[in-house]
Task: inverse folding
C-alpha cells in the first residue's frame, strides 16, 4: 500500500498529485476556504522553489492557479512577500464577485498605512488587472462585500506560525490597545473601520489572567449569510510557549455589536514558573492540549463546529450561537483528537477532518465522519517528516470542492510540498 492509497479497503479513494511535472512546490494554505473556483476547473495555489525555508521578508511566493482541464497547467498571476507556511497569503477566490477574481495579501511600500508595509491585492483574472487595498485581509465574507483584517505584525510576535516575518526583534507591542484590533474593510471602496479593539475584548467578561497578558485574535470566520462572525480571543504572558495560550470562543456582528461569549478555557498555568523550559515543548504539544479551543468553523448560520473543552471534557463540539446555548458532543469515542474540520458544502451529513502526526509513525490521517451513522471513513495516511518544525510544518488542511465530491490537501509525504485531490464521491454519493 502506498502512502496515497486509502487505508480503508472497503472505500477506495482515488488520490492524485496536482502539477506533478513542474518541479516546483505548491500549497494552498488553510482549511477554511476552497481552492477551487465556482466551476471546479481552476485550483488556486502558491508556488515556491523550496519544500521548506526559514521565512524572511524578502522571500516571495508565486500566486496562481492550475487549470485542471488543461493538463494541470499552472498560470502565474503575481508574486507576494506576505505569506507563511500555514495560511499562505490568505489566497482565495471572490466567489460572491462577478467573473474570476482572487484576493491575497501583499507587502507594500506604504509606510503610512494602518499596518505599515502590508495590504491586499484583488486580481481580476479575466481582465489581467490588479487593484490594491489598504489593509491585509484575514477573512473575506462569502458575499465578497467586505473583509475583516488584523495586524500581521502582532500575529508574528504572538503566534509566529500565522504571522508574517519581520527583521529585528525582540519587539515591544502594547498588551491590549484600544486603537487596534479587528478592522472591517469594504472591498469595493477600501474604507476601513475598527470594530473590535483588543481593549474591548479584554474588558468583555474579563478574567484575572488577562491583566498582565498580551492579547490577539485568530480563526476569524464569517458565516454563510455574511452577517455574523466568530473568533478566538487569545492571551498569554509567555508567547514563546503555545501551551501557555488561553482561549475564548466569541461571536459578534461584523460591526462588533452583539458580542457573545460561547466558551472560555482559562486555566492554571504552571508553565509560567521561572524554571519551566519552554524549549522542551514538542511541536504538536499545543495542538494536543486538553485546554485548547481551536479550528472553529461555521456549519451553518446558527451553529459552529470546534475542537475544545466544555464541561470538563475535550471533544469535537457543535455550539449554538448564543450565550448559554446548546453544546453537543460530536463523535463520542470516535473523534478523539484535534483536527481541521469542515462540513460538506452540499450535505451536512459529512464532516471532513484530519489528525496531527502520530508521535511514533509521523503519519497523519485524513477522514470523513458520517453524522448519521457515527462511522469514520479513513481516506488515507500521509507521512510528515519530523524535520519540519512548528513554523514550517505542513498540515493536511483538508478543503472541499464546492460540489462536495472531492477534497484537496497539502502534503509532504513524497518529499515535496504539493497539493493532492481525492475523489470522495464513492463515499458521499453523487
Result:
Amino acid at each position: 500500500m502506498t502512502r496515497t492509497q486509502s487505508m480503508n479497503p472497503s472505500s477506495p479513494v482515488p488520490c492524485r498529485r496536482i502539477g506533478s511535472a513542474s518541479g516546483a512546490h505548491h500549497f494552498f494554505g488553510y482549511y477554511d476556504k476552497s481552492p477551487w473556483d465556482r466551476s471546479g476547473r481552476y485550483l488556486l495555489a502558491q508556488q515556491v522553489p523550496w519544500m521548506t525555508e526559514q521565512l524572511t521578508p524578502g522571500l516571495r511566493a508565486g500566486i496562481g492557479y492550475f487549470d485542471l482541464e488543461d493538463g494541470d497547467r499552472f498560470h502565474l498571476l503575481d508574486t507576494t512577500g506576505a505569506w507563511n507556511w500555514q495560511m499562505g497569503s490568505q489566497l482565495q477566490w471572490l466567489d460572491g464577485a462577478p467573473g474570476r477574481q482572487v484576493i491575497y495579501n501583499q507587502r507594500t511600500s506604504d509606510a503610512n498605512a494602518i499596518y505599515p508595509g502590508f495590504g491586499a491585492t484583488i486580481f481580476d483574472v479575466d481582465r489581467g488587472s490588479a487593484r490594491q487595498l489598504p489593509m491585509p485581509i484575514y477573512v473575506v465574507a462569502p458575499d465578497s462585500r467586505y473583509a475583516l483584517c488584523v495586524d500581521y505584525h502582532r500575529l508574528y510576535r504572538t503566534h509566529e506560525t500565522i504571522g508574517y516575518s519581520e527583521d529585528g526583534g525582540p519587539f515591544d507591542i502594547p498588551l491590549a490597545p484600544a486603537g487596534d484590533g479587528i478592522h472591517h474593510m469594504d472591498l469595493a471602496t477600501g474604507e476601513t473601520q475598527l470594530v473590535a479593539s483588543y481593549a474591548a475584548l479584554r474588558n468583555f467578561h474579563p478574567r484575572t489572567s488577562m491583566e498582565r497578558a498580551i492579547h490577539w485574535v485568530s480563526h476569524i470566520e464569517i458565516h454563510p449569510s455574511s452577517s455574523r462572525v466568530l473568533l478566538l480571543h487569545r492571551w498569554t504572558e509567555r508567547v514563546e510557549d503555545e501551551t501557555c495560550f488561553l482561549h475564548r470562543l466569541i461571536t459578534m456582528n461584523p460591526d462588533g455589536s452583539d458580542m457573545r461569549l460561547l466558551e472560555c478555557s482559562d486555566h492554571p498555568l504552571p508553565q509560567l514558573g521561572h524554571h519551566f523550559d519552554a524549549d522542551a515543548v514538542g511541536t504538536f504539544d499545543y495542538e494536543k492540549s486538553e485546554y485548547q479551543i481551536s479550528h472553529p468553523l461555521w456549519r451553518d448560520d446558527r451553529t459552529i463546529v470546534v475542537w475544545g473543552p466544555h464541561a470538563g471534557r475535550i471533544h469535537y463540539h457543535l455550539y449554538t450561537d448564543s450565550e448559554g446555548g446548546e453544546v453537543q458532543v460530536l463523535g463520542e469515542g470516535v473523534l478523539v483528537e484535534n483536527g481541521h474540520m469542515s462540513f460538506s458544502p452540499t450535505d451536512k451529513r459529512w464532516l471532513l477532518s484530519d489528525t496531527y502526526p502520530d508521535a511514533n509513525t509521523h503519519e497523519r490521517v485524513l477522514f470523513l465522519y458520517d453524522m448519521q451513522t457515527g462511522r469514520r471513513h479513513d481516506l488515507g495516511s500521509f507521512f510528515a517528516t519530523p524535520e519540519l518544525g512548528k513554523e514550517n510544518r505542513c498540515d493536511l488542511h483538508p478543503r472541499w470542492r464546492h460540489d462536495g465530491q472531492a477534497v484537496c490537501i497539502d502534503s509532504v509525504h513524497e518529499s515535496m510540498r504539493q497539493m493532492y485531490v481525492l475523489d470522495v464521491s464513492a463515499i458521499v454519493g453523487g
In short: The radius of gyration is 20 Å. The helical segments are 152-158, 198-203, 425-428. The mean pLDDT is 92. Residues 30-349 form a domain with the Neuraminidase fold (CATH 2.120.10).
